[in-house]
Amino acid sequence: MSRSTGRAPDTGWTDPDCPVARTLDLVGDRWSLLVIRDAMDGARSFTEFRRRTGIARNILTDRLRKLTAHGLLAQHTAPSGRRQEYVLTDAGRALFPVILALRQWGERHAFAPGEAHSTLVDRHGAPVPEFTPITTDGTPLDADTTHVQKAR
């Protein structure tokens, strides 16, 4: 059973032993991460997701269904009782560091110097500091200081 969703694992994994590959199988397409991003920013309805992303209706329907089926979003009846809302689950909220890392990489590498872009701020309006993974003793981690230990 999958720890985060309580569902049996998918048998069609790209690389069954690699957590990166499994994650990409779940959310690795452009639209899924943009839906998660917008859910983190308060989008709840099909219409809101469509307006914010510009995604085609059929693709959005597919992504919402997939994200819900894999336990990243949950569907609830809106307070009005007239439509369904999508809300992040714990597993969906746990993607925040991924979205943050992508955002900060994009700020550094996807914009020309001085080019305007959105800014992520905390609840007090201060820009979120750069995210840097560290060891237990506070030493920064990167591709040169880590390696993958393969499953046996």
UniProtKB/TrEMBL annotation:
<dbReference type="GO" id="GO:0003677">
    <property type="term" value="F:DNA binding"/>
</dbReference>
<dbReference type="InterPro" id="IPR002577">
    <property type="entry name" value="HTH_HxlR"/>
</dbReference>
<keyword id="KW-0238">DNA-binding</keyword>
<dbReference type="InterPro" id="IPR036388">
    <property type="entry name" value="WH-like_DNA-bd_sf"/>
</dbReference>
<feature type="domain" description="HTH hxlR-type">
    <location>
        <begin position="18"/>
        <end position="114"/>
    </location>
</feature>
<keyword id="KW-0805">Transcription regulation</keyword>
<keyword id="KW-0804">Transcription</keyword>
<feature type="region of interest" description="Disordered">
    <location>
        <begin position="124"/>
        <end position="152"/>
    </location>
</feature>
<dbReference type="Pfam" id="PF01638">
    <property type="entry name" value="HxlR"/>
</dbReference>
<dbReference type="InterPro" id="IPR036390">
    <property type="entry name" value="WH_DNA-bd_sf"/>
</dbReference>
<dbReference type="InterPro" id="IPR011991">
    <property type="entry name" value="ArsR-like_HTH"/>
</dbReference>
<protein>
    <submittedName>
        <fullName>Transcriptional regulator, HxlR family</fullName>
    </submittedName>
</protein>
